[in-house]
Amino acid sequence: MAVMLDVEVIDEPAAAMMTLDPKRARLLAEMAEPISAATLAARVGLARQKVNYHLRALEKHGLVEEAEQRRWGGLTERLLVARAASYVVSPAALGPIASDPGRTRDRLSAGYLIALGARIVQEVSQLLRRSRETGKRLATLAIDTEIRFRSPAERAACSRELAATVARLVARYHDETAPGGRRHRLVIVAHASPATPKPTTEETA
Predict the structure, then answer these.
(1) CA dist list (Å): 89 to 4, 13, 37, 102, 104
(2) pTM for the full predicted model
(3) Which residue spans within the chain are E strands per DSSP?
(4) pLDDT band at 205 (very low <50, low <70, confident <90, very high)
(5) Which domains does the chain have, with CATH numbers?
(6) Cα(203)–Cα(205) distance, rounded to whole angstroms?
(7) Can you give the pLDDT at residue 135?
(8) Main-chain phi, psi angles of 64, to 5 degrees
(9) Is residue 108's pLDDT more than 80?
């Protein structure tokens, strides 16, 4: 029985193109549970032949996989399921035009922050793939929170204190010559939270 992943990172251009196709993206969204081509065709309103065509393409690129087979009289019906509940396209899929923090001069720019995020996707997905192959859990740490600053001055003060704290921690634990030591990348970013749309009169009624 296929096990659906929470998230899968796509690093092949052809597979990325598959997810950008609206019809194929719709099919993937409907395949959280094992489903037959006939049932899927009825659900999305497409001819079964077209659904089968799209499913073969998705399966070829590893985006869906067989979950089980059922026998109906003399026929065998395949049930397919999406490989993951959601997908992220890695910068690796873009080849030489992929974002790279090393090519960004302004380290305080939004572009640099985005490039850092893209590098995280690419590097962590490579490590995760190896961990799945070896059966070893990948050790990671993520902290996600929000701060509502009273003023720009306090935001700047928090930034200085955070930088100083990180510098102290790195100085305490970093050992360039430790036998068997392994490097870990630490990335800390901050950006304004997107504004939440205010509910309309109809929504609040």
Answers:
(1) 18, 9, 26, 20, 21
(2) 0.77
(3) 8-10, 64-72, 75-82, 87-89
(4) very low
(5) 8-87 (1.10.10.10), 90-172 (no CATH)
(6) 6
(7) 87
(8) -130, 160
(9) yes
